[in-house]
Amino acid sequence: MKLFSRNKEPSDPSVIINNCLKVVVNRISESLNEEEYHWAKPWGVKRFESIILAKFMLDYSFNGLAEDKLQDDEKKGFYNLCENSFSNLFNDEFSPVGLNYEDLQEEIQGKIDGYFEARKESKPPFCWHAIYQLITRS
What's this model's pTM, rounded to 2 decimal places? Predict the structure, then answer.
């Protein structure tokens, strides 16, 4: 009799990363639709920016958590899983309208790099305002 056994959920990192990315994207998309953001762009534009911002947030968070705690190959493994989840999600969302990750990879990475730079240049809450300005081009 296993009195103290637990039912463990699967712990496949690719599933966890994929699920986290989807949850963060959905939350950002919902937030950007709120009137308080005063950003009157079509849903597709907001979704595009939400997906990119979510990727930045995952990368930024992981960098902070894993800075000196993981081997380089472990970090590379995470980035590969994250990149695969991101490209799959992006293509699932935007390939029906003719956009795919491979064609926009440079632009997307440029946006993410810009968010990292804005975060590095100032502390919260100023950096978040700078990132918002980059997202909305305001």
Answer: 0.88
